[in-house]
Design brief:
The complex is a heterodimer of chains A (330) and B (302).
Chain A lengths: L1 H22 L2 H27 L6 H16 L5 H4 L5 H4 L5 H23 L4 H21 L19 H20 L1 H11 L1 H6 L4 H24 L11 H14 L4 H22 L2 E3 L2 E3 L5 H16 L17
Antiparallel strand pairs in A: 1-2
Helix pairs in contact in A: 1-2, 1-8, 1-13, 2-8, 2-11, 2-12, 2-13, 3-6, 3-7, 3-11, 6-11, 8-11, 9-11, 12-13, 12-14
Chain B lengths: L2 H5 L3 H28 L6 H17 L4 H27 L4 H23 L4 E2 L9 E4 L2 E4 H23 L1 H11 L1 H6 L4 H26 L2 E2 L5 H14 L4 H21 L2 H4 L2 H15 L15
Helix pairs in contact in B: 2-6, 2-7, 2-9, 2-10, 2-11, 3-4, 3-5, 3-9, 3-10, 4-9, 6-7, 6-9, 7-9, 10-11, 10-13
Classes of the chains: A mainly alpha (330), B mainly alpha (302).
Amino acid sequence: MNRAAVLAGPCLLIVATALVGSGVSRATGVYFITALVSVSIVVALYVFIGNSGVLSFGHISFVAIGVWTAGVLSVPSGEKPAIMPNLAEPLRHTTVGNVPSLALAALAGGLAAALVGLPLMRLSGLAAGIATFAVLEIVHNLLRYYEKIGPGLNTFSSVPETTGIWQAAIGALLAIVAAYLYARSRFGRQLRATREDPPAAAAAGVSIYMQRLLAFALSGAIAGFAGGLYVHLLPLNTEAVYLDLTLITLAMLVIGGATSLWGAVVGALAVSALDSFLAEAENGVKILGVTIDLPAGTRVIVVGALMALVLIVRPTGLTNGREFGWRWHR
Amino acid sequence: MTLAFFLTIDWQTLVDALALGGIYALMAVGIGLVFGVLRLVNFAYGQLVMAGAFALALGSQWNWPTWLSIVLCFVVVLVLSALLDRIVFRPLRGQSPAVMLVTTFAIAFLLQSIALIWFGPLGKIASSLAPLNQPWSIGGVDIRKISIVAIVVTIVCLALLQLLLTRTTVGLQMRAASLDFQTARLLGVRANRVIAGAVLVSGALAAVVAVILTVQNPLVTPDFALQDTIVVLAGVVLGGLNRPIPATLGGFSIGFATGLLGGALPTAQSQYLPTFIFVAVILVLLVRPDGLFVRRAATERL
């Protein structure tokens, strides 16, 4: 019963969020859709960071690769010269539908992660975490200036806006199921063993390198997929998938509790809710007759402070790093 | 890369590259000192530099004499360092290095956003030190004064630091604590004093970096020194995280390489400078996962 709960809890929460989100106005609904896309990104982070215990600042680069893949392939051919005048020849005439673009985004994210994982996963814990910054910087720099593969500094406009509330919800559910199946597989168990006690795991015949690489590739694929969902929601540019998104998604994971799927989902939704409220408040919002008008930048201050506070006071996060269960157990 | 590429490097570029290497070496030492005693990678180090730079900008806005602005810069950075130590680093002691790194990452963005609200996205100009940016003509070659100053200051700072670490009690304690914190404590080293010492020295280095960087680039924005911190962190990993001297060499190398490539590459390629640098970082790590300047495996003992 409890085994089923680990999967059912997060899924029910997603469905509930989608049901509420489908009933509100279009303007408010965007917050719900964004929250569900964030769930996919944070679940991708959880697959690697949560199971391996190794930090990564590089995952947003796989989201960015997903954004570029799905974005370039989805802009209608007629619109391409306006946004991407220097696009390479084969890409100029290739346009694919919604679902293939998402699948290709996942593939591109996974391949990219496998490729950069080859050298990076050889590093030990902290050095690996810092080195993933190198990936973020490289991808950001290339996407920003290499106009043969995308819009460069321009924004991805004209991408069909197919990520409505249900596409976002189904996407998040797919990410959750993939993460659940991986965590329950022998590979997920082996990786968690290396997290708890690397020398003991190695002595038991677990290849730390191979297990980390596998998880890195899988989480890269989920991140790429989430990027595909994201670009079908909003017109994005390179700055949208860089340091700020890295901070906020890491905050979601940490605040929820990095070592559980439940924590990743709860963290993503809770921080999204707070962030949406603050975003409204930065534009001025009326609550109980009092107008709150916060200066721009408040969101990052609150989220950053909250993240630091959780890490200092309760480093295992809101869920204490536990999976969802039908009853409370110690 | 052909020979013609290297011929495009002139003296100005070389001296500027040395200066940037020196600045990054100072930042690497600042990060490495704190890492030594706390096992904490301070991602918010760049924001200490940013705070110092804003202090200099405020000083020049209020028409303070230069020396007073520099004093203000040191005071602001040292107070902020002490606060960080007391409010953030101390409660985090004993946490895993990854938790500490993520926390300082959050703190970095927190400080940056505070600066954003306080000073606005366009930032402020610190003009009072501008004369140092003028060139000196040496043997027909123009060299910016600040580059020479940066190189000299780096050498002086590193020498002073070496004296502090080898000739004073607190320095000896810092080295002992970075080798084995538990044993050092058992032998009577006061943990709080040693950590506070390391954090303050590291803060003083950040203030020095702030002064040099604002001369080079007087426009101080909230993301001042953020990119530099990321590059320096990569350099520290490249050199070897666990020892101060390899970390310093790593910081210097990456700064020197950045300066050299940035000066020598034609504009069409220089926009890809970060890619060149970080691909090089990954390639080096592929060959030497433990760091370039570390002799034996730097894995933690059981």
